Amino acid sequence: MANGRLGMAAAGAGAVLVLVSACGGSGGGGGTARGELAAESSNPVTVTPANGATAVKPDGTVEVKTSAGTLDAVTLQGGGKAVEGQVSADRKSWRSSRTLIPGTDYTVTAQGKRNGKPVTFTSRFSTLKPSKTLKVVDITPNRSGEKVGVGMPIFVRFNRAVTGKAAKAAVERTLTVTPEKPVEGAWRWIGDSQAVYRTRTYWAPHQTVKIDARLAGVDAGNGVYGAKDSAATMQVGAEQITKGDISEHEMTVYRDGRKVRRIPFSAGNGTTREYTTTSGAHLLMERESHVTMVSPGRKPGDPGYYKTDVDWAVRFSNSGEYTHSAPWNVGIQGSANTSHGCLNLSPANARWYYDHAQRGDVLNLTGSTRKVEWDNGWSFWQMPFDTWKQGSALA
Q1: Cα 285 to Cα 346: distance, rounded to the nearest angstrom
Q2: DSSP 31-80
Q3: What are the tens digits of pLDDT across the range 147-192?
Q4: Shared domain check, 154 and 114
Q5: Which of these three, 127, 158, 179, is where a domain ends?
Q6: Given a cut of 60, is residue 38 above it in pLDDT?
Q7: Could you write out the DSSP letters of every residue in 327-340?
Q8: For residue 245, is pLDDT > 50?
Q9: Cβ neighbourhood burial of 300 (10 Å; 0-12, 13-18, 19+)
Q10: Stretch 26-32: mean pLDDT, rounded?
């Protein structure tokens, strides 16, 4: 709201109250706990929302003000958590600095001095319990003990659509990424229920990255509020970059800048677009020890139908491209392209690549007529970063 105060369904203006001396008197602890006005005092404290208020909107601001005396500390507690806030320079006011948890009872406790004596004041209110809430249902990467590659994007997926730029912007402001080794990055909305974070340049290797979604209480539009905060930690491992030339039938793996393995392959035969291996900046997405490859859009008996079991498969697009073991054509690996689009490797090379692959490792391929689309798998590095940023709701 324009005045920065919380809206209330059951109570209106801020409660006018007074800090009561901790030294006692008939208006001592009991009156303070109930947030009642101490009759012997004429120096009020104002708390917004009012003591006893219910159905308070969780996206507003809690304020404590005193017209006499000073505030030493203010705590705001709810749902077992403290809410951050800031005392003003003149120590006459305090404001919360973040949204609140919906459907939660809160207690404000202010401590200060009046006429040189310590005083304490307590007030209580409860927040609105909305019929619909927004939750984070997944943050990827999210596997315990996993180390990811330097190209790894961060995916945050929600339980419902966030519609409209204003709602997306409010939600996006709650998303923060904090690497140990700073690098510029930006969120991009891919659909209404997923935001993806990508950096301008690759992550520095061997570091920890913290992801926070301070979603509790954010107004996501149409009566929807964020239900709770979420957080995750990402471990970036070694810088593993593979550079391959489809026309030369080989690729080289580099780890932390050092050449570690040359791998010959047989790529897509190029007879159709479907059978042409894509060029461009790919990311390793998944690895599986055993995969059954089936020709897309074809059934048994159709021309071009195939169903093949392969081992040590590492996925690098959503159009069916993997590196995998292909013992049937080891003799031509390094000299000819005969596959349906995958990179056929020898069993030994496929197992080695599988064993060392990290999700988010970079696979740069050149030498084919088919470019991988930026939204094919995790090929987000195909899009210039300045273009990527335009997908942010804050752009």
Answers
A1: 21
A2: HHHHTPPPTT---EEEEESPTTEEEE-TTS--EEEESSSEEEEEEEEETT
A3: 999 999 999 999 999 999 999 999 999 999 999 999 999 999 999 9
A4: no
A5: 127
A6: no
A7: GGGGGGTTT---BS
A8: yes
A9: exposed
A10: 31
CA dihedral in degrees (357, 361, 367, 370; nearest 10)?
100
Of 206, 296, 217, nearest to 59 by C-alpha is: 217
Model pTM score: 0.87
Amino acid at 16: V
Calpha distance 244→262 (Å, rounded): 10
Structural tokens at position 243: 């550079």
- Same domain assignment for residues 116 and 22: yes
Q: Are residues 32 and 123 in the same domain?
A: yes
pLDDT at 175: 98
- Alpha helices by DSSP H, the chain: 29-34, 165-172, 347-356, 385-388
- 136 and 120 in one domain? no
In total, how many domains does the chain have? Answer: 3
Other CB atoms within 10 Å distance of the CB of residue 331: 10
Around Cβ 152, how many Cβ atoms within 10 Å? 29
Does residue 346 form part of some domain? yes
| Same-domain status, 85 and 143 | no
pLDDT value of position 295: 87
Residue 305 neighbours by CB distance under 10 Å? 12
Tell me the one-letter amino acid at 36: E
H or E segment to which residue 314 belongs: strand 307-315
* 393 found inside a domain: no
Residues forming the active site: 324, 342
Please tell me the least confidently modeled range out of 242-251, 298-307, 312-321, 373-382.
298-307
Q: Is 311 exposed, middle or buried (0-12, 13-18, 19+ CB in 10 A)?
A: middle
330: containing domain: 240-379
Q: Dihedral of CA 224/230/236/242: which sign? A: negative
Please provide the average confidence, as pLDDT, over all residues in the chain: 90
Specify whether 267 is located in the same domain as 325: yes
Residues 122, 83 share a domain: yes
Domain of 107, CATH number, reads 2.60.40.3780
